[in-house]
Amino acid sequence: MASLLPLSGNLGKRLAKHLLRRASYNISKARIEEFSNYTVSQAIAKLLDFPAKKLTQPIHYDTGSPWINDDPIYGTVDNTHGSGQIKLNNYLAGWWMDEAKRDTSLRAKMTYFLFTDFTTSIRTLNNEFHYDYLMLLEFFCVGDWKEFVYQMTKNNVMLKYLNNNENINTNPNENFAREILELFTIGKGPQAAIGDYTNYTEGDIEQAARALTGWNYTKNNRGDYDSGVAFGNIPCGYATPNKHDFGKKEFSDRFNNYVIEAWDTTGKTEAEKIERIHTELKEFIAMVLNQAETAKFICRKLYRAFVSRNITQEIEDDIIVPLASTFRANYNLEETITQLFQSQHFYDKDDSDNSDEIIGGLIKSPLDLALQSLSITDYPVPDAITDGRNHYLKFYYRGLGDRVLTASGQDIFRPPSVAGFPPTYEAPDYDKFWFNTSTIIPRYDLANLLLDKNTLKATFNISEFVRNNVSDPANPETLVSELASIFFPEDIDAARVNYFATEILLEGGSISPTTWANEWTSDNMNPNSGIEEALKPLFRAFIWAQEFQTN
Length: 551
Prior knowledge:
23 helices, about 50% helix, mainly alpha, 2 domains, two-stranded antiparallel sheet, about 550 residues
């Protein structure tokens, strides 16, 4: 029986590695050792302690000025970027990735999870709008999901992306109404008949579209967010009463024949009409979230993102249903994800079946692969302030962004469709879609890229990394086993250690362990030494290994 009961005792190294890999992009030997001494509740509390960011927004690489908002440190926004909007959007993504790599909490992982739930594209509007969208995701990443749905419905990028700015009383546009039901909240469920799904009907989409009429986006609403400081003062779209349908909306038996009553606008002020539009939006969202299936739909997404692709009937009954009950009580993401991450099931401690291992059982997304590689190695990324052009342009935009992420099928804020990336929704394979004949080469190219100082404008000293993380690097087996303990979800057995040590590091036995020990002792401090070159094939082999390609 799968169990949501909390795990007892300290995590230990194995389970600490598992939690860190699933809950953050930031992994290191020091972090693994730190978390190994925590109980699961202590570990979750640490992950819920959001650290300060290095940069709260991108800094222009030529002027040093902020790109989005006036900043007390970096000054007034420079609107003469001169770099082209597409570049600026990609640099915004680079800024986010760098902060995600640094993030020692749940914040970045949960922010990206919400992105995969309420998907948009970075190319929808310019970078200021998308920055606001990312800040909204971040603000609610472990917060009130019900309020999040309300605020996201009014978000400028979302309004534009799914054409709800074109949804007016005289010509309803059903695009957003369809997707908020099908993809973002409740899901279709099995089809019952033509135009009739288990969870809603085509008629419900029509009524939802009417309830969602009369919204538009604006560039000039910065600092005028209707919920003010309580929600981070994040700009949003605005209601237009003359374009809203104030008539009666009648939903099907899928929503217990719920009715949003007609509202007489006669003699009403503009402010009263705007308030009524907000009220109808909240009423519609409450109706959808009152359905038991909505909480289960989101909890299945959480499960597949953080635990496993496989939701058996046992998992549905013993994990999804009770987890959804927790979620539905007040739609608090922190309570829900805490229950999941504390559970015996998350650590695979609730059964003795070795055929469905959770640890190491998810294929890394390209984003996980890249950012975990950077954090594990403490990779010397060019500094965003002192070396901004190389940081944004060379390292993140043209380097990791183009050659690894986009080439591997994850242009991180530009999914191929409103459904997102196939690994998040394509049953039954889900995360297996990340690793195929089209993506394997750019995934493997990551290792070569990280060793290419000319492309990334960064020099990674492998021997220094080894010296800082291995107790006895002069011993090939110790070197391999201790590095493997950092890189891989599980420690590897003696045969696997021997393979990496003998076949890769010692070049198939052509170098003796004694020769290696002597060479390490004599010249490992020299970045141009034979030791440095000898370690490169081992580094590539670790990145390419199936163990590292999984979480």
